[in-house]
Amino acid sequence: MSKRIFRATWMVALAVFVSVLALSMGLMYQYTGKVLSARLKAETDLAAHGVERGGLDFVQDLELADYRITWIDSEGNVLYDSQSDTQGMENHLERQEVRDAMGKGIGESSRYSTTMTTKLLYCARRLEDGSVVRLSISHYTTVRLFLNLLQPLLMVALGVLAVSFLVARRIAAKIVNPLNNMELENLQENEDYREIRPLINRINAQQTQLRKDQVELEKTEQIRREFTANVSHELKSPLHTISGYAELIKDGLAREEDVSTFAEKIYSETYRMTHLVEDIIELTRLDEGEENMEKTETDLNQIAENAVEALMPFAKENGVSLELQGETCPMQGVPHLIYGIIYNLCDNAVKYNTRGGWVNITVSCPGGVPTLIVSDNGIGIPEEHQDRIFERFYRVDKSHSKAVGGTGLGLSIVKHSAMIHEANISLHSVPGEGTEITVTFPAL
Ligand code: ADP
User: Fold this and answer.
1) 164 within ligand 1 shell (Cβ under 6 A)
2) Which is more confident, 125 or 28?
3) Contact yes or no for 108/37 (Cβ under 8 A)
């Protein structure tokens, strides 16, 4: 940028110099022309006077510096010329100034030399005997004037260029330096930058956005780190159990009658681990917002029916009744994520329940708002845990969760899937009485 400012400033200086030069040359040319014409006229008058009195002797004796004097008789024949031999000279009657002088007493004209570098000014005056005295002087054209003045002009030009170079450099530095030294903090208060306020406002807005993004990024990074640590931890304990029992069997240290119990333990730990890995994969998918997230028109009740059907054997196994009351409820969503929401909520309602307990699922569509309610009369969630159960790996009672095959990820999957649907989750739970979780999706 400083280069551009510098170049522009320098160009302006150069343009100004050239225009001033051209203008002054023009004016100078005009002025000298006027002065020369006046002088020529006066000198012609004097010469005419002299010739009238002294005739040829007078002209021959005349000391002429820049002037050329020609004496022409009334027929146009040249009687005398201060620069050429009269013999070879053509008749001068056709010359404008001579013709005018013969007619009006005085004549003036000007002609360019063949090289165009000089202009000749003529002035002629008629004498009493009808002959004409003519004086001429050369006037430099602008080109000639310029060539004559070339040396001093070049020196001035060099000076101007040097000065404008320095000035341009200073101006460029003056504009660019404050920008380079700009403290990005406290920009708003600094009065030095009044002229670039829109730019500052933009920088400020971007800075705020960047800070927000940074905080967001750090938060995500923190969650990711914690998640990885938790995952390793969660996987370690079943692996320990599995390898412990397997080792006993391998080394022949397990009694015959214990082998099947140990195998059962290995099996259930493997099952839990598989379940855990599945949940982790699902959560990672949700985190990364992978493909398969396309929303389509679907029916909340239909999906609830499928989830309930899949969970029925598990509920029976636990002696818990599972019942769905629903009506058709069309909505826009990702079917497999909605299935995950219902499945996990119902799975929890069965898991954290007691034999003989119940789980009720209601699907309704009041005012077109798809609403899912999963309520149970299970163990409930103490108030102080209610805010945190949607966090990854958060469990109210870790050993209880493990005992019932929990991974600690079910509700985070629910929360994440709900977020993708811009759905709202509300929880109402009383320890010892039961839990009710309501999910409301945006209306179609
Ligand atoms: P988990 O795999 O341990 O069930 P979740 O994320 O699904 O993990 O649930 C987190 C915790 O919330 C559970 O460990 C449990 O303590 C509590 N919880 C979830 N649903 C219920 C419920 N319906 N009744 C009682 N407690 C629940």
Assistant:
1) no
2) 125
3) yes
